[in-house]
Automatic annotation (TrEMBL):
The keyword Endoplasmic reticulum does not apply. One of its GO terms (molecular function) is heme binding. This is Cytochrome c1. It comes from Drosophila pseudoananassae. It is found in: Membrane. The keyword Transmembrane applies. Belongs to the cytochrome c family. One of its GO terms (biological process) is mitochondrial electron transport, ubiquinol to cytochrome c. Binds 1 heme c group covalently per subunit. Heme c binds at M108. Residues 1-13 have a biased composition (Basic and acidic residues). Gene3D superfamilies: Cytochrome c-like domain (1.10.760.10), Cytochrome c1, transmembrane anchor, C-terminal (1.20.5.100). GO terms for cellular component: membrane; mitochondrion. Electron carrier protein. The oxidized form of the cytochrome c heme group can accept an electron from the heme group of the cytochrome c1 subunit of cytochrome reductase. Cytochrome c then transfers this electron to the cytochrome oxidase complex, the final protein carrier in the mitochondrial electron-transport chain.
């Protein structure tokens, strides 16, 4: 499920400063972030992104869960699936073996390890838990209105069911 209420998500978004504009005078200005803002890039430009990622330009992951077969399961498996390459598999410099990535050779290094963060509620910070959280978050970014649509569908089905019963 979703890990934050809308109010919590808004409060977290407001902690980031976003460059916006231009205003009426043609000037750009900084403002607190909103939920509808894109995530700021960790890189100043495409060249810096490629330099930090073995020449590969990292994709926008906003819709990756919807775009890949298996969705959240694919992301979870990819994040937890790093292994030593089996005999006979040759990797170029800067590549890692992950059987869940097409072809098995991926340029993204393993990013999740046990105990790299601390949860406020005491949840054990295992690699598996972190991968589950990332997959859940990416699912939410691809469909932030999912829960609202689901509730609306239940109401519509209830009303249609009621109308069907009283029409006979």
């Amino acid at each position: 499920g979703v890990s934050h209420t809308e109010a919590e998500a808004k409060a977290e978004a407001e902690q980031i400063t976003v460059k916006d504009g231009p205003d009426d005078s043609g000037n750009y200005y900084d403002r607190p972030g909103k939920l509808s803002d894109y995530f700021p890039s960790p890189y100043p430009n495409e060249e810096a992104a490629r330099a930090a990622n073995n020449g590969a330009y990292p994709p926008d992951l906003s819709y990756i869960v919807s775009a890949r077969k298996g969705g959240e399961d694919y992301i979870f498996s990819l994040l937890t699936g790093y292994h030593d390459a089996p005999a006979g598999v040759v990797l170029r410099e800067g590549q890692y073996f992950n059987p869940y990535f097409p072809g098995g050779a991926i340029s993204m290094a393993q990013v999740l390890y046990n105990e790299v963060i601390e949860y406020e509620d005491g949840t054990p910070p295992t690699q598996s838990q972190l991968a589950k959280d990332v997959a859940t978050f990416l699912k939410w970014t691809s469909e932030p209105e999912h829960d609202d649509r689901k509730q609306l569908l239940i109401k519509v089905i209830g009303i249609l069911g009621f109308l069907t019963v009283i029409s006979y």
